[in-house]
Design a protein that fits this description.
Oligomer: single chain
Number of helices: 5
Organism: Cocos nucifera
Protein name: Tunicamycin induced 1
Number of strands: 22
Keywords: Signal
Radius of gyration: 32 Å
Length: 406
């Protein structure tokens, strides 16, 4: 076979292989389900509409923290969902990116997903409250030395007991809470009041102290350790009391005094999250969001109900796709379109989807935004700009003579 013929054969084989990959994209079931969910949500079903993309080779993976709340105001439940910005996106070979016959193979230049599941940063909790432990079979209990308490299912924190939780994947509220209003209260001595969230937290803490049973109950998923707070003095070690198999109570020798407000502290903390500073900008932003949700109700005497609250560390996937639609006659106004340009027969829009990866492998779309992958710039010939006029019809212009020109 001659060299030109051999080159043509190789070129045809490469094009055929590339065309086959384009017609049969690498689409595992999780990604196919994501595509179907987006098509159903956007209503991309009909004649002349096509969707392309969802290539796992270009998918980016990152971890973030999601905050979800359900607030009931006047018998109407308002869902609130917040998401922290993902600090780092990376190319990672997740199991959901593999089809059944390709499991165990890390390809396309991706590194294998050998990381542990996403987890929350360590945080502190203060009693009185109760903690229900889920998926914490290997949880370590340190007070501050390690204590063998067996497999724990429930931990009761008495008033004054503070623990640091590490390795938790999520924290959620087990029972609804009634929280007092208004958000901004007027102090009888005309002193500046703390933020509304701090005032609510202190009122809730005082109510928990006066109640025989803890009114605050949290579910913690997957903690690796519960340790005594480093802020506690060495002489004030937590005492462990076994109440039943899988149930213990942690108590402290010193109990803080009951206060009516949080004005005396220079750096007030939000109970029960004592590791969260009350002057945090994120806390201020959430307070403004809560005030906008409550509206006028937030300035009146009464209460509102926190039906559901969950903070969870999650894995997210970011992918791009495009939607293409055929243009029919009379559907587009071409009056402002240049005459020299070829009129397109199809319109295309590009999007980016942010999806949440569930523990069971499902991928749930969270946010879809339109993107502009590149800027189109037209390059026009000079003859086209002048109306395609022949140079013989253009009047000649003679410049002034220059005697220094050879």
């Amino acid at each position: 076979m001659e060299a030109p013929a051999r080159f043509v054969a190789i070129l045809v084989a490469i094009l055929a292989f590339g065309g086959a990959n384009a017609l049969n994209p690498f689409a595992p079931k999780a990604i196919s389900d994501l595509r179907e969910a987006i098509m159903k949500g956007l209503g991309i079903q009909g004649e002349g509409l096509e969707m392309s993309g969802f290539d796992v080779r270009d998918a980016l993976v990152g971890q973030s923290v999601a905050y979800e709340f359900d607030i009931e105001v006047d018998k109407q439940v308002v869902p609130v969902k917040l998401l922290e910005d993902v600090s780092k996106w990376d190319f990672i070979d997740l199991p959901i990116f593999r089809v059944e016959e390709e499991k165990g193979l890390a390809e396309r230049g991706r590194r294998s997903d050998a990381r542990v599941p996403p987890e929350l940063s360590p945080f502190q909790l203060a009693g009185p409250m109760e903690l229900w432990i889920q998926d914490g079979d290997d949880m370590r209990l340190s007070l501050p030395h390690d204590v063998d308490a067996g497999k724990l299912k429930k931990v009761i924190l008495s008033d004054g007991a503070v623990v640091t939780v590490k390795g938790a994947r999520s924290v959620s509220l087990r029972h609804a809470l009634d929280l007092p209003l208004p958000l901004n209260r007027t102090h009888p001595k005309n002193r500046p009041m703390a933020s509304g969230l701090l005032t609510i937290a202190e009122a809730l803490r005082n109510a928990a102290r006066s109640n025989e049973k803890p009114i605050l109950s949290l579910r913690i998923v997957g903690p690796t350790s519960l340790t005594s707070s480093p802020s506690m003095s060495p002489n004030d070690k937590l005492k462990l009391k076994r109440l039943a198999p899988g149930l213990v109570e942690l108590s402290s020798r010193s109990i803080p005094a009951v206060s009516e407000d949080v004005q005396g502290s220079q750096n007030p903390t939000l109970w029960p999250l004592t590791s969260l500073n009350g002057s945090s900008s994120n806390l201020r932003g959430f307070e403004e969001l809560l005030a906008s949700v409550l509206g006028k109700k937030g300035q009146e005497e009464g209460s509102f109900r926190l039906v559901r609250a969950e903070v969870a560390a999650r894995t997210y996937v970011k992918m791009e796709f495009s939607v293409q639609r055929s243009l029919l006659d009379g559907q587009v106004d071409w009056s402002g379109f240049p005459e020299w340009k070829t009129r397109p027969q199809k319109a295309m829009a590009h999007f980016e989807v942010l999806a949440r990866v569930e523990d069971n492998g499902n991928v749930i779309p969270e946010r879809i935004a339109a993107v502009q992958p590149f800027n189109i710039q037209d390059s026009v010939l000079g003859s086209v700009q002048t109306g395609n006029v022949s140079m013989s019809q253009v009047s000649a212009a003679y410049p002034l003579p220059d005697y220094f020109t050879l």
